[in-house]
Each structure stands twice: as structure tokens, then as C-alpha cells.
Amino acid sequence: MERLIFHIDVNSAYLSWEAARRVKAGEEDLRLIPSCIGGNPEKRTGVVLAKSIPAKKFGIRTGEPMGMALRKCPNLKIAAPDFRLYEKCSHAFMDICRSYAPVLEKFSIDECFLDMTGTGTIYPDPIAVACEIKDKIRDTLGFTVNIGVGSNKLLAKMASDFEKPDKVHTLFSSEIRSKLWPLPVGDLLTVGDTTVQKLQKARIFTIGDLAQRDVRWIQALTGNKLGMQLHCYANGIDDSPVQTQQQEAKGYSVSTTLENNVTAVEQANRIFLTLADSVASRMRADHAKAYCVAVSIRSNDFKNRSHQHKLEIPTDITSEIYAIARDLFAELWDKKTPLRLLGLSLSEITREDMEQLTLFPDRQKEKARKLDKAVDAIRNKYGVDTITHGSVYGSSKKVGKKYRAQLEQKKHHNL
Fold first, then answer.
1. Fewest CB within 10 A of the end CB: N or C in the chain?
2. Least trusted range by pLDDT, from 30-34, 58-62, 145-149
3. Does residue 32 contact residue 57 with C-beta atoms inside 8 Å?
């Protein structure tokens, strides 16, 4: 029996969800005008998180600085992100999807896979049921999705990226030559810009070109593991299952590409405080702690460097993570080269309580932990933007001194 997989993807999710809320309130539909989600609507800073189709016609791209987007379209309508709304809409559309499928895998906040294999008795026409799901989401929730129907997860996901919005597309094994192979090689899942350049230099311009090359030749060009994956994907081969349980995160990371280069330590430290706040809160939500903190930087000439530090006792405390990141950055950066990207990652994750017992508890650490707990509670109730940490933590200096003492005894390990 050939597998039957659906991939369901919300069209420009953040913008669609905000637009649906405004339309329900009788306001203008953001999807019909040049608009985007991202940044601060008053200060006009940050990056574009999602854009409307009219905005796309001005050349506005997801991930670009808001200042650049406004130069392309001065009348761009900007709406601030609302992650509580996004979670609510995500749950709502996945509940509809779950009512049709024996197995659902949440792939991200705005997309999921359904394993419809063996449902032919209930749904004899897979295209018809895909259209039914699509229309039910649109008519019930007020936003649209694309649905890709294929014989595995790869083909279903590729199909959902065909013409948008509010469409159902198929990509079965029998359609690979006609629908998949003519596409540019950069459209293939997992193929990034660097790989595209390598492939195009080797005169591989379409997915079909890649599919028909000898796998050993591709491996020699891109590496054994990636080369094998690219060859399989180009031929529509993917055996990965639709998983009902989301795998536990093996690490947490966050990075930001800056509109203006970082040229001062104080400027970088403020950014690292925000990054630490973001990544630590995500980890705490999963009841996890990290043994390893790492900092990464990218200079304005696109050279990447990174440093990491391993802890004897895992942590989930924002101020502690920030202090370590701050000191790692101080060692990593020459204070001269302008930086365009800063990143922070937490790895070697544990979900066990590894706190060391002591007769003399660290009161600063307990105070910081209570602060984090209070901040998390407020954000969960009122939204992520309702409260932010100050630019300097009282406990960070003590944590930093403790960390610097550890550095004298232990060397860093490059990532």
C-alpha cells in the first residue's frame, strides 16, 4: 500500500492570523494591502516576520530589517506580533486537522503532517478530503492554508509549496518527473544558498539534473551525508515517519541579524540579555536545564566564530546564562571588527533535577530563579511583551566572577 501523507501549511501564518482577528472586528484586511508583522510599529525597528502578497510585490522579504522594508514601501502597514494569538490559532487549526487523521505531527506552529495511509474506506478521494479540510479551516477560522498531498512527507511538503494561497496540490511518485524535476534545484527541501552555488557551478540547475547524477559524484561535491540525502530527495525518496509525539529538544538556540552592525560591548551585552531571556524561558517551559552555554558571532565580512562553556551543574536561570554569555563574548570578540549577527545556544540538555544539595543555599541564585518564575507567569497570562528584564542583573556580576574563576581551571572548547 502506497503511503498517503498530507502537509498542511498556513498561508503567511502570523499575518493571516492577525488579519483574521481584525476582519472579525470589522477592521481592514491586512492580506489585501501592503502589510507585515514584525518589529515595533511605533519605532519601526526589528525584522519582518510575515508579509502580505501585496507587500511581496514591493520586494519585501521575510527576515529583512524593518527599515529596509519601509524604504521599499513607505506606506507599509506594520502590526506588532502577538504570540498568544498565534498559539491559539495554531491549536484551533490543528484540532480540525486532528479530527480527520489517525496520526498528526506538529512540524511547527503553522504546519503539520497528517498520515492518512489506510483511510481509503472512510475517505475514498484524498483530494476531496484535502479540499474539505482546507475549506473548513477557512470558513471556520477565517484564514487559509495550502495542503500538499503525496506519498511521503518530502513530497507532501514540496507540493504544499506550489501555487498559493488556499490551494491543494498533489505530488505522488508517478508525478515526480513532471512536477518535481523541472523545479530549480534551490527549491528542493534542505538545499541552501551555499549548496545551490556549488551545484550550479557543476551545471546542476534543476532538481531533475540532481536526481540523474551519480550519487557518488554528488557526495564528492557536497559531502557523503548531505550528498546521499540530496540524491534521495531529488528522486522523491523519504521514509521518515509521521510522529505523533514531538521529540524532546536536544538544544535551544536563538540568534539575531542586526540592521546596524554592533560596534560596542555595551550594545552587544544588551542584545545578549534579550537572547538569554528568550532562550532560557523556552527551556524552562520544557522543564529543562543546560550543561553547556555557547555564543556565536558573525562579522560584517561573514566570518563566523563561536565559544562555549560547560557547567558542572546545569542551569535554567536567565541571569546566569546571560553572565556566561557576556564573558564568553568578551573573550571571543576583538572589540574592533563590526558584527552583524549575535547568537546564543544551550545544549547538553537534561530534564532531571541536578541541583546540588548544600547546607548554605545560594540566595542570589534562589532570588534569580524566583524572578524568572514570576516573569514567566506574567508572560503566560498577559503576553510576551508585557514585561522585560532590566539591562543589568544584580546577580550577574557574582555569577560572572564565579565563571571567570572556573575559566582559570578549565579551557574552552570550540563548537
1. N
2. 58-62
3. no
